[in-house]
Amino acid sequence: MxxxxxxxxxxxxxxxxxxKRGKAKSDIILALWIFFIGLHLFLFYLQYAxxxxxxxxxIGLLFPLPLVHGPFLYLYVSTLTxxxxxxxxxxxxxxxxxxxxxxxxxxxxxxxxxxxxxVVRSGGGGHxxxxxxxxxxxxxxxxxxxTWSQIILYRHRKNIEEQFSNIEKINxxxxxxxxxxxxxxxxxxxxxxxxxxxxxxxxxLDADALIYTTVVLFVCFLGFFGLKQTNVFIASIxxxxxxxxxxxxxxxxxxxxxxxxDADAERLxxxxxxxxxxxxxxxxxxxxxxKLAEQFDxxxxxxxxxxxxxxxxxxYDFVNTYRIEEFKRTISDSQKKNLTILALALECGxxxxxxxxxxxxxxxxxxxxxxxxxxx
Length: 376
Hints:
The longest helix has 36 residues, at 128-163. The chain has 17 helices and no strands. It is elongated and about 90 Å long. The protein is mostly helical. The chain has 2 domains: 2-228; 258-375, Orthogonal Bundle (Arc Repressor Mutant, subunit A).
């Protein structure tokens, strides 16, 4: 019953996505992915309930299906974060493994129904090579795509910090939980297929049922969190507006091929610090690297390069350092002694108390209250 319930939930979420107005490319990818999840659960239900003999044409369709979920995870995460390759045709490469396995099974699909049923009842007898290759590809695919998607999320977070001075409204929880959920599923597959397979057989436990129960829970999570937290299935989600291609700060060598000359970089760095001290652009809570770069008529990437190399910080930390220093000056101003800590923080360019407290603790090693107590 649990597997048919998971199938029903998956197709219900599919209908929500198809009826969604103003669908983005990421919504279409998610809709396709959820369709394959629902199909996958349905095919497993037919096998688990012993109904495959009534629908022999479906026998075998189930086995390579796990290989499509990793690519769909990557496509969804990369599309939503704007990190897809420029040559879109390369995306089709990710579906070569499942296509290869289906082609491998072509002779099996043309077998008489009685022979296919006999293979299933024998636990795949005569197709041990296919089963071994398929399992190896599934495990490699899971580990590869979950890791790759996590790297994409990490880079996206770093790109955000290179371009925005306030990032609290940019919520990446949906993608974090999505990648985490897929990681749990593949961890279960790894455990029941390799580590605890003999234990499960000895105790008469169904390894496949355990795996697909995890998948059903994942589908329930998609529905609950997608509807309640981020309206993924109703309203469009925007992880960050108009994010530009950037690289996280790692080493100076990454700018070895930059067109910014040392003399120009030194001049930009000097002008930048003077402007930050005199013009106080950090008081604008919506300050971004592109907005700040306009003041110097340079590309935002050049501005990020100067901040990374000469300040050894990303844009987010660079701007918020000035905001913290402004707060320290303001807290000592007798004319503003009646203002609350939050009011002062908002005046200095922060958008929320939590963001201010986090930055203050990170940059001073103290909470705002501890600092105020100390100076008094």
